[in-house]
Design brief:
With 166 residues, the protein is an alpha/beta fold. The protein has a single domain, classed as Rossmann fold (3-Layer(aba) Sandwich). It is 40% helix and 13% strand. It has five helices and four strands. A four-stranded parallel sheet has the order 2-1-3-4. Strand 3, helix 4 and strand 4 form a beta-alpha-beta unit. Helix 1 packs across helix 5.
Length: 166
């Protein structure tokens, strides 16, 4: 068995990516995967470095038993492309930014997080929309999209990283 490291990326690392990070950390703890799966998040921009997630993000996650308060925003670093197995962009703009800075010898799979939707045919958006400038309903909707994506990602992690081949 090999370990798996996942980095979620959005713009400022205070809404979408910490939600995905916190939810995957929650799943890791529930499944006893600590030490075998690592989750983190970062932003393409350094607007909020060192800040906790947006209070609306924290509130929605808390409704589902997911704690985000301890997370702190950081910016994507060039070393992330080799320190993580997955670097997952929340939308196409983030993906373009990541692909532009990805080193040629990058070992990470750099792709859209929405590629992992567990129910891809359920009319879900191609990318996770930014709830920052909207109301509470947007944060709730984003949580549900991220929950679907984490569910699909967990299946991939389990199959590709945690299943022993006999």
């Amino acid at each position: 068995m090999k370990s798996c490291r996942v980095l979620f990326v959005c713009t400022g690392n205070i809404c979408r990516s910490p939600t995905a990070d916190g939810l995957l950390r929650h799943v890791i703890a529930q499944r006893g995967w600590s030490g075998r799966v690592v989750s983190d998040s970062a932003g393409t921009h350094g607007y909020h470095v060192g800040h906790a997630p947006d209070p609306r993000t924290i509130d929605v996650a808390a409704k589902y038993g997911v704690a985000l308060e301890a997370l702190r925003a950081r910016r994507v670093d060039i070393t992330d492309f080799n320190d993580f197995d997955f670097v997952l962009a929340m939308d196409r703009g983030h993906l373009d930014s990541l692909l532009a800075q990805r080193p040629a010898d990058c070992s990470a799979r750099v792709q859209l997080f929405s590629d992992f939707y567990a129910q891809p045919d359920a009319g879900l958006p191609d990318g996770i929309p930014d709830p920052y400038y909207g109301g509470p309903d947007g944060f709730e909707q984003v949580y549900r999209f991220i929950e679907n994506g984490v569910s699909g990602l967990v299946k991939v992690i389990e199959k590709e990283y945690l299943t022993s081949v006999s």
